[in-house]
């Protein structure tokens, strides 16, 4: 019987593959800056202790574990032995030691606590005080999320925003997310509030049952969730029926299609608690804890089948280049790009290219974004829209922009000689024995006369010894080399010059280069998923970079978490993906002074030497761009407000460069 049951489950789950078009092929309107990243979401199916509120907490935890759960959501009231009514397990003013004890009880019983109720509305006069205490209790208990909800009518919405802005930094410093769900409102309203708060520690908890219940079925949660999907970091799972009775119920007992519901968040790349709040059957009341156990088990099994089906569908969709979610509802413009994206799809399918990510945006909004093929051929891992790619020399304009931040602050001048900061360059000579002063602007425009490659860097860049060196080690070695021509007299592409520039940035900023770039460029630009040093938690998202030699293809870079990375290569050390790099290009189109001053934008886009501004390559019609040896390319057209980005992860310029040119031509021809 057990084997038969498993066969039926597997059949249901893998039947989800047939949902690929159904669940992922439709357009979903989302705002620019969508945090969906294409990697499968790690859904964590939890049961709240709430259904067991008439029984002791110990019975709730044992029942949830016996129902097959690995996760639990906490801090409702329970009727403990000898009590006549349920009392809070953890009062808001309860000691942190008690919180820590409850968290440990869960873990000792084989359950990981994911979320806890706050028990207070944000608009309550004591809202900030209690929520601060709940955040501290969550930290002590090892619980990742604190849930709050309330009503946003009248002046409450303004109060929510003000209080969440105050609580966000507290939650962040405690390593806790404050999640808010709709209670008498829609997810659209909650999402708008979270976007206005704009703090990474304040996110949405979505409750589809509440939407149906409080709007009396007038708002469809499958439409509503699309308005806030980017902010969702957990769910309170309940279903709802309008017949035979208007009643909340357990998942699968109601009218909500959970395949379609969860498809909106199936590729965020992060953990997503699904906390079963209501597990009951319509018109039927569980009267014993054993009956609650059975309902909990059924809810878990239903959600696990849905999740397995969705992830199977996502895998198929990504393998064949389908768009799980579109970032804009711009179907006509997207369709106009069919020929451009077909170029990429065809070369991946037919020309022995492992995978690719392509993105086109216009006026700050993504028009179309697709991933094709594989990011790791050996392990058959699909390329996703936010697979972390080695962007190689697209790092260079970012390095130049970082240096320009010091120009803006008066700590540097473009006409400063390098030897002002690095005295060893006063001894550098050309082939005739003559000394020439290299200016900072020369370092950013390939006119410095410095040799093409940084000394001592191996041909296979990503070797442990090289990765453990420092930028400051390299500039003195460059100073000992022979200058190839007088600075400013020729254009000669140099991967070594950025090491000199980055060394000066470190000296003047007093910070390691990657930290300064993070603070000066990435943080204000919202580039929160771009790295010189890939965190261990994100290493599985990094694509393998391949190199084609005359007779074979070999891995050039397979990120190794054992590397002790201190060499944050300023000429080409960044890992990112098109949606992130779009934000950087957009700085130069918007020119709004938010990250870079108008003067910086103008100067970097102004020709300093034939074909080059500062950091950017320039075309005669004003288009600015850069390329990377890994097969990456990014460009922007100020005349049309268009951005085009195409990332391969293959070092083979004779094959890749013509494809990049065809893609750019097709995109520019389609959108004018």
Could you walk me through the main structural features you see in this protein, from its secondary elements to its overall organization?
With 672 residues, the chain is of the alpha/beta class. The protein folds into two domains: 303 residues, TIM Barrel; 282 residues, Beta-lactamase (3-Layer(aba) Sandwich), CATH 3.40.710. A hairpin with a 3-residue loop joins strand 21 and strand 22. The longest helix is centred in the middle third of the chain and has 31 residues. The N terminus is likely disordered.
Task: Please tag this protein with its features.
single chain, 672 residues, alpha/beta, TIM Barrel, Beta-lactamase, 2 domains, 8-stranded parallel beta barrel, 7-stranded antiparallel β-sheet, 22 helices, 17% strand, disordered N terminus
Count of the domains: 2
| CATH class descriptor name of the largest domain | Alpha Beta
Shape: elongated
Whole-number average pLDDT?
89
CATH homologous superfamily placement of the largest domain: Divalent-metal-dependent TIM barrel enzymes
Major sheet: 8 strands, parallel, barrel
- CATH fold label of the largest domain: TIM Barrel
pLDDT < 50 stretches: 1-36, 322-329
Oligomeric organization of the protein chains:
single chain
Discrete helix count: 22
Percent helix: 25-40%
CATH architectural designation of the largest domain: Alpha-Beta Barrel
Please give the alpha-carbon distance between the first and last residues. 63 Å
- The strands making up the biggest β-sheet line up spatially as 1-2-5-6-7-8-9-12
Per DSSP E runs of 2 or more residues, the count of β-strands stands at 24
Q: Would you tell me the structural class of the helices and strands?
A: alpha/beta
């Amino acid at each position: 019987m057990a084997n038969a049951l498993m066969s039926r489950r597997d059949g249901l789950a893998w039947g989800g593959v047939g949902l690929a078009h159904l669940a992922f092929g439709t357009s979903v309107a989302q705002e620019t800056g969508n945090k969906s990243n294409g990697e499968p979401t790690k859904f964590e199916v939890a049961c709240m202790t709430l259904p067991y509120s008439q029984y002791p907490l110990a019975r709730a935890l044992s029942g949830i574990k016996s129902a097959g759960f690995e996760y639990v959501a906490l801090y409702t009231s329970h009727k403990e032995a000898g009590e006549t009514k349920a009392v809070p397990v953890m009062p808001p003013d309860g000691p942190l030691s008690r919180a820590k004890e409850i968290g440990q009880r869960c873990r000792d019983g084989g359950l990981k606590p994911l979320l806890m109720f706050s028990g207070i509305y944000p608009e309550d006069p004591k809202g900030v005080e209690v929520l601060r205490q709940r955040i501290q209790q969550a930290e002590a208990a090892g619980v990742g999320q604190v849930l709050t909800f309330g009503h946003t009518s009248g002046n409450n919405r303004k109060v929510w925003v003000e209080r969440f802005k105050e609580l966000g930094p507290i939650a962040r410093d405690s390593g806790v997310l404050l999640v808010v769900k709709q209670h008498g409102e829609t997810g659209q309203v909650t999402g708008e509030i979270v976007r206005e708060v704009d703090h990474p520690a304040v996110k949405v908890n979505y409750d589809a049952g509440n939407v149906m219940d409080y709007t009396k079925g007038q708002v469809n949660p499958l439409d509503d969730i699309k308005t806030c999907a980017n902010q969702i970091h957990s769910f309170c799972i309940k279903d709802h029926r309008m017949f035979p009775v208007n009643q909340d119920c357990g998942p699968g007992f109601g009218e909500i299609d959970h395949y379609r519901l969860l498809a909106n968040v199936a590729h965020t790349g992060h953990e997503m608690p699904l906390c079963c709040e209501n597990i009951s059957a319509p018109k039927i009341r569980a009267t014993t804890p054993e009956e609650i156990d059975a309902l909990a088990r059924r809810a878990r099994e239903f959600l696990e089948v849905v999740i397995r089906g969705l992830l199977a569908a996502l895998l198929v969709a990504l393998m064949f280049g389908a768009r799980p979610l579109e970032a804009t509802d711009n179907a006509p413009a997207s369709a106009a790009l069919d020929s451009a994206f077909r170029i990429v799809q065809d070369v991946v399918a037919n020309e022995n290219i492992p995978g690719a990510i392509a993105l086109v945006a216009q006026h700050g909004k993504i028009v179309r974004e697709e991933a094709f093929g594989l990011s790791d051929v050996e392990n058959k891992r699909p390329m996703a829209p936010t697979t972390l790619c080695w962007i190689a020399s697209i790092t260079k304009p970012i390095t130049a922009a970082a240096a320009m931040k010091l120009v803006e602050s008066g700590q540097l001048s473009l006409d400063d000689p390098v030897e002002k900061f690095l005295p060893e360059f006063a001894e550098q000579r050309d082939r005739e024995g003559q000394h020439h002063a290299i200016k900072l602007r020369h370092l950013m425009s390939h006119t410095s006369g410095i040799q093409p490659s940084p000394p001592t860097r191996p041909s296979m860049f990503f070797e442990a010894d090289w990765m453990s060196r420092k930028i400051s080690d390299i500039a003195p070695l460059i100073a000992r080399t022979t200058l190839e021509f007088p600075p400013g007299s020729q254009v000669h592409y140099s991967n070594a010059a950025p090491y000199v520039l980055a060394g000066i940035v470190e000296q003047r900023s007093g910070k390691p280069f990657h930290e300064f770039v993070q603070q000066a460029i990435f943080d204000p630009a919202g580039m929160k998923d771009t790295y010189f040093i890939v965190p261990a938690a994100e290493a599985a998202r990094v694509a393998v970079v391949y190199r084609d030699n005359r007779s074979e293809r070999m891995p050039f870079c397979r990120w190794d978490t054992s590397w002790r990375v201190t060499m944050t290569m300023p000429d080409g050390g960044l890992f990112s993906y098109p949606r992130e790099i779009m934000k950087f290009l957009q700085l130069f189109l918007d020119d709004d002074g938010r990250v870079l001053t108008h003067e910086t934008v103008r100067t970097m886009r102004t020709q300093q030497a034939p074909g080059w501004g500062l950091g950017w390559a320039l075309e005669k019609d004003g288009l600015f761009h850069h390329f990377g040896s890994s097969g990456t390319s990014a460009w922007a057209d100020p005349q049309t407000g268009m951005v085009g980005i195409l990332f391969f992860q293959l070092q083979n310029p004779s094959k890749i460069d013509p494809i990049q040119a065809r893609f750019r031509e097709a995109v520019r021809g389609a959108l004018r």
